[in-house]
Amino acid sequence: MADFAANLGGNLLARLSALGTDRRLPLLVTLLMIVLLAQGLANLTWQLLPGQSEEPLVLPRNTASAGPKPATGVDVSAISQWHLFGKVQKVAPKPAAQVTEAPDTRLNLKLRGLLASSDPVAARAIIADGKGREEAYKVGQKLPGNAVLREIYADRVILEYRGRLEALRLPKEAAPSGAVTRSMRQPQTRRPGVTQAGTADNAALLRQYRNALINEPQSLMNLVSASPVTDKATGKLKGYRIRPGKDRKLLGRFGLKSGDVVTAVNGVALDNPIKALEIMRDLSSATSVTLDVERNGVVQSFAFQVE
Question: According to CATH, what is the number of the domain 26-47+179-305?
Fold first, then answer.
């Protein structure tokens, strides 16, 4: 549990640090992604962490005494055997972990995300089946296609299928499904129906907020708030509703409104908390950022050019 939380927090801080110091990325998008990622990971943590059992506190039977007892001599030799601070044990160093190598699997599965941990019990893998349905799995659980998850590494997982070990890897380019392709690095033209947001008039404000983000990120957490929104028909997550914080005009400066629901970033739907991690990974090399926003039942797109 501790390793899981530490790993999760470490990954989050690393990604936020990289995002916050990237001076090319529009700051509003940075703020939104920090808030969305924090909200998404909060939800994901509750989904993935094993439940805590509440066991009653049991007191030792002989801890309480009915009354004062006659003073007796102190048996120093007996006290020395109590090991009040624990026994000193000579622990042999752990052998180096053996990394399992296996051929790539041909099962119709996709590895969407990983929460690797030195404790196999805390590690999780987000795996999608052939229909795109994603679930979080732990070691030992059965996967679609009658495979079993055996090991979780930082870049792949090891499955057991029909008595044979196979590897399911993260995409080499780490590009999320549905993300905007940028392999040619060509300037992107304005798409029909896409609002170009963020003008030169906001440059001073962006610099001010960016400096605060780098030096004191906690001070910006109350600029924007986000809450998950579910689809009424399916009950599944469809995005995050954004509202302004202490700067009531911040969203309006970029064409956004209080109550807008952000449903996708660069074509990646925010229908699963783990998608926020995929988007964060993808933004570092983006030439532009597009937010799909649902407003009054109508989806609009807002494009932010990289600075």
Answer: 2.30.42.10
